[in-house]
Design goal:
This protein has 212 residues and is an alpha/beta fold. The protein folds into 2 domains: 1-37; 58-196, 3-Layer(aba) Sandwich (Glutaredoxin), CATH 3.40.30. Helices cover 49% and strands 17% of the residues. The protein is built from 6 helices and 7 strands, in the order H-E-E-E-H-E-H-E-H-E-E-H-H. The chain has helices at 2-37, 90-106, 120-129, 141-146, 173-185, 190-211, and strands at residues 58-61, 67-70, 79-84, 110-116, 137-139, 154-159, 164-169. Strands 5-4-3-6-7 form a 5-stranded mixed β-sheet. The chain is elongated, with a radius of gyration of 24 Å. It starts with a helix and ends with a helix.
């Protein structure tokens, strides 16, 4: 009787461990699948100024004590990346080292401006803690409303003539890089480029079938 009880307990524990391993394996596969199907480019939302439009013009005080002009021609920078963030946004914090890397890679031609709203003391503390004192950092509710920002982190790429080159919700390095790729391709977003390319490929395939 005791032997049967011991054996049944052993079998039960083996089954539990096997089930745990299956759950862990499934979790890993789900993560891999999510990475594979994640959007390739920044997610554009149909609100606010459109790509190609003149960027809204603002003159805003920065947390560093200077005045920053946004929109309009900029002879000093070929592009300005306006990055909307919040001190309480985990994804925003994850992208901060990436922003520093992008600024270094792009050189002096790119200006990165951090934008948010709320109480200044909270942002001052966040700015110093995160090592962002060398970035222009502005607080403006009107700026966010003008671009109709509803989710964070959100980025807008403005060219030297003051027009919007690309924009979108960015949750990863790939989505942030896609803004610069869209600029080089001359399209609103990488997703738009892929959609057009796919449509053209489908059209060519249909024509080839008609003439076959």
């Amino acid at each position: 009787m005791n032997d049967a009880l011991i054996i049944s307990n052993i079998v039960l524990w083996v089954a539990v461990l096997a089930l745990l391993l299956v759950v862990l394996a499934l979790s890993r596969q789900i993560g891999i699948l999510y990475e594979r199907i994640a959007p390739m480019g920044a997610l554009m939302m149909d609100s606010g100024p459109k790509v190609g439009d003149a960027a809204p013009r603002f003159e805003l005080p920065t947390l560093g004590g200077t005045t920053l002009a946004l929109g309009g021609a900029d002879a000093q920078h070929s592009h300005t990346l306006l990055f909307f963030l919040s001190p309480t946004c985990p994804v925003c914090k994850k992208l901060l080292p990436i922003l520093k890397s992008v600024r270094k890679a792009e050189g002096a031609g790119l200006q990165i401006v951090l934008a948010s709203d709320g109480d200044r003391p909270e942002h001052d503390e966040f700015r110093h803690r995160a090592g962002l004192t060398d970035f222009p950092y502005v607080l403006s509710t009107e700026l966010g409303m003008k671009y109709q920002i509803s989710k964070l982190p959100y980025a807008v790429l403005i060219d030297g003539s003051g027009r919007i080159s690309a924009k979108g919700l960015v949750n990863s390095r790939e989505q942030l890089d896609s803004l610069f790729a869209a600029r080089e391709l001359g399209v609103a977003s990488v997703q738009d480029y892929l959609d057009v390319a796919g449509s053209q490929a489908g059209h060519k395939h249909a024509l080839s079938k008609e003439h076959a």
